Amino acid sequence: MPAQPQGDVPPLDGSLPDSALDSSGTLAAYVHVPYCRVRCGYCDFNTYTATELGEGANREDYPDQIASEIDLASRVLGKPRALNTVFFGGGTPTLLPASVLGSVLSRLKSVFGVVTGAEVTTEANPDTLSPEYVGELARSGFTRVSVGMQSAVGHVLQTLDRTHDPDRIPEVVAWVKDAGLQVSLDLIYGTPGESLDDWKRSVDVALECEPDHISAYSLIVEPGTKMGAQVRRGELPMPDEDDLADKYEWADSA
Ligand SMILES: C[S@@+](CC[C@H](N)C(=O)[O-])C[C@H]1O[C@@H](n2cnc3c(N)ncnc32)[C@H](O)[C@@H]1O
Ligand code: SF4
């Protein structure tokens, strides 16, 4: 078992400090879906593959578990306040059936209320989407999908342990738009072996898709990940700070 980070032990009844209960502010919900089909070598997010989970924590138990969490959040917050943003992140929320994500959203609506025009997003791995799936998300009240593209270049995706076919990205973006949803693309720059031309190609392909937003993350080599071990053993080089800066500046000007 990895050691837990040092810090205050959270109260088991879910109570929050007074500062977090300020009722004048707006309220947003983050729904964590801690499942992935495979773990990408660079990722240290709180997520689990199917074989890593025991009884009570697996995907079939998720709807009941999240319903209890929503009820607990509502008890802790006391006075109901409508949500102005809802974000489903992961992990890979879209590994769950769209109907399950829709029912979690319905529960949030009935317990808290969601304001008209609220942004309701789910993160998605491109491998998990289809026109039917995004259509069901739209009918359930989602307004936006954030797709993990990472790169348009095969060897870069391979180093990142990504399993999706880069040629599918424009098609996936078109499905999301056709369903009437906004679309955002995640990119990672600075992967070992990625040239400046590789990065330019990724940004160009992302821009050609005309998404509503692009998030470009500098690769962080996290300790405890497969990539962290590859770098420690000298099998992969640590991302170079000057290379990262050049890629950031190029993306910023594109
Ligand atoms: C939860 S994931 C997105 C959804 C989905 N799981 C996927 O990967 O397609 C959130 C984003 O964080 C970024 N990310 C994760 N680990 C990172 C790391 N070590 N360095 C840089 N970006 C990272 C990736 O761009 C990823 O798309
Ligand atoms: S980057 Fe996304 S798909 Fe890959 S392990 Fe992390 S959360 Fe899962």
Description of the structure:
With 254 residues, this protein is of the alpha/beta class. Helices cover 35% and strands 19% of the residues. The chain has a single domain, classed as Aldolase class I (TIM Barrel, Alpha-Beta Barrel), CATH 3.20.20.70. The protein has helices at residues 62-77, 98-111, 131-140, 154-159, 169-178, 196-208, 226-232, 241-253, and strands spanning 27-33, 83-90, 114-124, 144-150, 182-189, 213-218. A six-stranded parallel sheet has the order 1-2-3-4-5-6. The N and C termini lie far apart (44 Å). Iron/sulfur cluster (SF4) binds at residues 36, 39-40, 43, 45, 47, 90-92, 125, 148. Iron/sulfur cluster (SF4) binds next to loops.
The major beta sheet can be summarized as: 6 strands, parallel
CATH class descriptor name: Alpha Beta
- Number of DSSP-assigned strands: 6
Structural class per helix/strand content?
alpha/beta
Any idea of the CATH topology?
Answer: TIM Barrel
Q: Give the ordered list of helices and strands.
A: EHEHEHEHHEHEHH
Our estimate of the beta-strand percent is 15-25%
CATH architecture annotation name: Alpha-Beta Barrel
How confident overall, as mean pLDDT? 91
Assigned CATH superfamily: Aldolase class I
| Spatial strand arrangement across the major sheet | 1-2-3-4-5-6
What is the rounded distance between the termini?
44 Å
Bound molecules: S-adenosylmethionine, iron/sulfur cluster
Radius of gyration: 20 Å
